[in-house]
Amino acid sequence: MTVPTLDAELVTLLPSLRAFAMSLTRQSAAADDLVQDTVVKAWSNLDKFEPGTNMRAWLFTILRNTYYSDRRKKVREVEDADGALTGQLSEKPAHDGRLQFRDFRVAFNQLTDEQREALILVGASGFSYEEAAETCGCAVGTIKSRINRGRARLAELLHMEEGESMDMTDASTVAVMSARPTSLA
Amino acid sequence: MLPDPPEDNPIQRQIDENLKRIFDETASEPLPDELTDLLARLRDQETRK
User: Fold this and answer.
1) Taking a C-beta distance cutoff of 8 angstroms, is the pair A93, A156 a contact?
2) Which of B4, B11, B28 should be substituted to probe chain A, the one whose Cβ sees the most A Cβ atoms within 10 Å?
3) Of A16, A119, A162, the CB nearest to B19
């Protein structure tokens, strides 16, 4: 017997669940399939959900487990219809130094699954570190480390460097920084 | 363990702004018809039990 309030709560979580699915699959058709599978599983297990506990973490966990389980089963390469996985970064940063959103998306899609999910959960969907750790079935320290590595990798891919917003006219400093970009990570 | 980067770090701020933008692009879309149809079917099954 489904409690109507649980049903309603689940429905309010679907937009953010889709956004989380999109950040994992990087393709809209695959994301929608994943959300549908998740909803069917969640619905049939709604009686096992403990009211008063965190439904968002519960629902996101089901989606995440479904994604990783499907990924293990799939041997064939996924089609890249949207070009999401193979997009090219611009050769140069934007002239005003601001990050181009298109480039950001391309760089984001190059991160590992674990880095993307940690960044999206904590950086965009408002999960606490503890909630993200619960959802991903790992330690809080692991989430923090994935976020730090993901941010460092994004900064590297997008040529964002510490102090970039300041005027760096000291040529020797610029030379040292561009010669050893990984030392800043 | 690295310490959490400070909130006023401009690189982190730009990254987080763009992460939110990626997330909101999908989260602000209306639910696709396939999904609302699925919900309707699930509710229908429930009431027939």
Assistant:
1) no
2) B11
3) A119
Domain edges within chain A: 1-86, 89-185
Find the residue in A nearest to B7 (Cα). A123
Q: Are B21 and A123 within 8 A, CB to CB?
A: no
The Cα–Cα gap between B35 and A20 comes to: 15
Convert the pLDDT of each residue in A90-105 to its tens digit. Answer: 666 555 556 688 999 9
CB-CB: which of B10, B42, B49 is closest to A165? B10
Fold of A89-185: Arc Repressor Mutant, subunit A (1.10.10)
Contact B11/A at CB under 8 A? yes
Predicted confidence (pLDDT) per residue in A11-40, tens digit: 999 999 999 999 999 999 999 999 999 999
Task: Per-residue pLDDT tens, chain B, 49 aa: give them.
Answer: 444 555 568 888 899 999 999 999 999 999 999 999 999 999 888 777 6
Give the ipTM. 0.84
Q: Regarding the domain delimited by A1-86, which CATH topology (the fold level of the hierarchy) does it fall under?
A: Rna Polymerase Sigma Factor; Chain: A (1.10.1740)
Whether the CB-CB separation of A182 and A135 falls below 8 Å is answered with: no
String of DSSP letters for A48-63: GS-TTS-HHHHHHHHH
Kindly give the parts of chain A with pLDDT less than 70: 1-3, 75-86, 90-99, 162-185
Q: Which of A16, A35, A160 sits opposite B11 (nearest CB)?
A: A160
pLDDT of residue A179: 53
Rounded Cα–Cα distance for residues B24 and A46 (Å): 27
